[in-house]
Amino acid sequence: MSQYTAVTDADLAEMLSAIGVGSVQELFDRQIPADVRLGRPLDLPEGMPEQDVYAHLRDLAARNTGAEDEITFLGAGMYDHYVPAVIDMLLGRSEFLTPYTPYQPEVSQGNLQVMFEYQTAISELTGLPVSNASVYEGPSAVASAGYLARLANGRPKFVVSRGLHPHSRETLATYAHGFGAEIVEVGLRDGVTDPEAWAAAIDGETGAVFFAQPNFLGAVEDAEALAAAAKDSPAVVVGQYDPIPLGVLKPPGECGVDVAVGEGQTLGNRLDFGGPSFGFFAATEAYLRRMPGRIAGETVDADGRRGFVLTLQTREQHIRREKATSNICTAQALNALAGVVYLTWLGREGLVELGELLLQRTHHARERLTALDGVTALHDQPVVREFAVALDVGGTDGVRRVIARCQEAGVNPGYALGRDYEEYGDGLLVALTEQRSAADIDRLAEVLGAAVAAERADAEVAAS
Amino acid sequence: MQRDRATTIFEKGAAGRRAFVAPKLDVPEADADTLLPAHLRRSAPARLPEVSEPELVRHYVKISRRNFDLDTGFYPLGSCTMKHNPRLHERVAALSGHSRLHPMQSPEHAQGALELMYNLERALGEVSGLPHVSLQPSAGSHGELAGVLLTRAFHEDRGQQRHTVLTPDTSHGTNPATVTMAGYTVVKVGTNVDGGVDLDDLRAKADEDVACLMLTNPNTLGVFDPNITEIARIVHDVGATLYYDGANLNAIMGKARPGDMGFDIVHFNLHKSFTQPHGGGGPGSGPIAVSERMRPYLMNPRIVRAQDGSFDLDEQGYEKSIGRLRGFQGNYGCFVRSYAYICSLGAEGLRDASETAVLNANYLLAKLREHGVADKLPLAFGELCMHEFVLSGSPMKKDLGIKTLDLAKRLLDHGYHPPTVYFPLLVDEALLVEPTETETKETLDGFAAAIAAILAEAAEDPAIAQNAPYTTPVRRLDEAAAAKTPRIRQPIET
After folding, report:
1. Less packed terminus of chain B by CB within 10 Å, N or C?
2. Cβ separation B333–A404 shorter than 8 A
3. Are residues B302 and B249 in the same domain?
4. Angle, nearest 10°, between helix axes A85-92 and A333-370?
């Protein structure tokens, strides 16, 4: 018996007698052949009491530098937004935390309604009529959109902007290799997808095109123009969107985008070192029956009362098996709940206000940093929450050292772009949220200015 | 549970109401139109709900009460493993060093997280008998995709193009769906009279075009396939890989290991075997473990430990990697919980979990026999079972006029979540029962008695079960109507 099992000696005797065996071991001996039985204990440490486990996990946590331990401007796909207290409270309720997938709708109306509300909120956010009830996270959502295109038109070429998150590009490539599609990458010019190269890459063989809004360099793309370039081809237009800037940016549904996907972490989910969060997936009506994952729908019960069920399940793996539109079974229901609660908490005006605040702060931070010696803008496109600068410190290693110097002073200035983009070896990607105040931006400017100066001074000494 | 009419959050509130107060604009204000030109701008706000915080809280608390949940009720849900979720896990996962750790934080500033992941990899390697582990996949089916893509890379590396993957007809629906997504064709293998793989059918279908056989052992019939080493030999003889669907791993922890049975790849459902709250359908986590020959193809980045004991993420760690399957490092929040579970139980506790799961399943089966319902709900295969078992409701339907679905719905009125119904597909009127190790004998006794009571009642009047449930927030729902004219969002008055 452990702390999570409950069989007493008296129970055991009764249970074995009811079964008609002499021991638990006999149950295994009679079913598992001797040659595949493990004849020794697992080579793992002994179990620990709860307080020791807590202490161990706390010690591990203390060896990480979280967003409470420094002033951080790190983004690059996940952002340190404030998570309102109501989310902790609601997600902690056992009725939301511990139920299973709502296969028995009569006792799952809470979850099914949450899914229905979530779908409504994502539709409103994206301006697209249909939404599923979540997929794993951002990059696999992009890859799932690729699979949707594969099912829809079977064309073998995917045109992908280099502004798409590197993890999205890699994930899409991994999936596409499986189902047999080739990736053609289109480079960036002045911080955005090169419009001529983009148009030239799209042809009759193109099954889907992919871009990010804003893109990985923080630049706002002309999404409408990117989508328009594909309008005479059969290609599915896929945009990966950051949902918070959608408070101020033209929604994908008004830009000619067929499938809008993205990382939902910024909607009420924690950073959690990269997960769990959720991916959203919205589309035009034409793709409703090709969408991956679960969808909730409205119906009535035997007494005519309004109710909700999982619907269009014939797309799903548990019914269609090899003909399913995806293999997703367990997705991210609890994280999607955080998403819809967060959007409700912000409300209609709040999302706009948050977007405007980010727009102002990001612009201000860019002004402040590019006024520093040795710091220049990498592009001058519109930016909403994140921007890229170049540090004149001799490339990626220099940028990494500058970041380390800043962290010693308690400020994380952002992400070294050279980790993913050779062509921007001197790039630094700086992200804002509502949690980074004007004072924090001042501090960033001060610390970064000093770190760049120190790095350049050291380099000069080394060179002489 | 609440029974009032369902109203969505979009039907509540009033224009101008809000829960959010924006932080003050504390930077010099620039002309917003020059920062973001009109042609890139949204023209009207998204029509999100407009409610106060008290309205928001009350709405979601109210609808939460229209849910059945594991903390208040028994879920004998076969193949889904609904075991107790220790609250310690929520506490440790919420520590800011874990929960507010940025995934792009440099490895020097994430040593605790990397050590946790490294230790978890080692533990999963030991439990499975396959030493090389990647934690990246987001769910079991995502782990399956990883495994099949690894198989593809393995064959391509040997210059081979193979086209088919074998799955038994008892397999989880995710297996065939995964196979297709990974660009292979599914070939079904039959089941023999004992509930195991039909070896003759397997021999007939195993050829040089087969890339892989996907199997779970014990399988979804609750049967441990005694021919597993022979199955492995047949598959390996044609150069294919053997894939272990880990959905049922919780039946054998510390008792037997997929690696020792000849499997090349295994996925874990951390949310089943190693406890995660199911959250109404996620998050999950689906790490994979592989044998030496599959190691070079694992997903990058790889967690590595240096001589000085420090940890790093190596983007090129696996030389022939299939790449990435998702962003960042995987569902780390789930790793924290499962790692805490393994620390709590240790080697002995994990073995106890499997032993008790198997004990409870066999006891429940015996108890149903004791109630004399075995003639109406016979065990589909075998005498004993592993951690779950399949009953067939076929005689019940014939003799009493109630289907497995009716029985399931009537169980709701007794306060139980029904077992999995109509799966696996090859059993007529299937009822797949998994009591899990965390349930008490009293709970199992109560559940068996409820089944017996429902059958006795149906013998008198089948209409009672046929029209069930009666006590739930809504009565039986019209699923056909929902699919015919999909209404999947709330219409909004602007």
Report:
1. C
2. no
3. yes
4. 160
